[in-house]
Write a structure and sequence with these properties.
With 192 residues, the protein is α+β, with helices and mostly antiparallel strands. 22% of the residues lie in helices and 31% in strands. The model has no long low-confidence stretch (mean pLDDT 86).
């Protein structure tokens, strides 16, 4: 480009995608924009909305403004969620209290919770998406974790990681409340 103008958005998207060795399928999965639409944007056949470019920028891991201006600056995240901004989730299970610690835009990607189970309380869940994993650290009390055919009792300070793409449960077996830090990680299937 001899004019010194930054490359068009579609051209810049293709350039960054190739630098990161991503296929159109992979970028489509990461961004939520269809492979066909990505192909049309990269070949400058359509003019995408800002919302679509934002999704693609997130999928590429670059800042939206930098992408629009023809640069490929990596997103630098500094999200703060104050205690008063936490979302509490009520469950159908008596004595089960969940607080969402992670930003809501991470839902179905990486979710972080503070789980409190009253005496006799339990959190029972159906299978999550394929290959999903849960990571639990017992902060106080004692719990029994069951995932599919596997089961284990854990005390304060213990950690467990398990696939949660099967029915699973966390039961308080303590003579008082139990508190846990829980992370749910949704692993995406990569298609070549």
């Amino acid at each position: 480009m001899s004019s010194g103008n930054p490359p068009a958005v579609g051209e810049k998207i293709r350039e960054i995608r190739k630098q990161r060795a991503l296929t159109l399928d992979t970028l489509s999965e990461r961004s939520g924009v269809s492979k066909g639409m990505l192909s049309q944007i990269e070949s400058e056949k359509v003019n995408p909305t800002v919302a679509t470019v934002w999704k693609i920028a997130r999928g590429l891991g670059v800042d939206l403004e930098a992408l629009l201006k023809g640069r490929n600056e990596v997103i630098r995240i500094f999200d703060v969620l104050h205690h008063g901004d936490r979302v509490a989730l009520d469950t159908e299970e008596h004595g089960t209290h969940l607080q969402v610690l992670s930003p809501l835009d991470l839902a179905e990607d990486l979710e972080v919770y503070l789980l409190t189970l009253d005496q006799g309380g339990a959190l029972r869940s159906q299978a999550h998406a394929a290959r999903s994993e849960e990571y639990l650290t017992v902060l106080e009390g004692r719990v029994r974790v069951q995932a599919g055919n596997n089961s284990s009792e854990l005390a304060a300070g213990d950690f467990i990681r398990y696939n949660c793409d099967v029915d699973h449960a966390i039961e308080n077996v303590n003579n008082g409340p139990s508190r846990l830090h829980m992370i749910v990680r949704f692993l995406k299937t990569q298609w070549a």
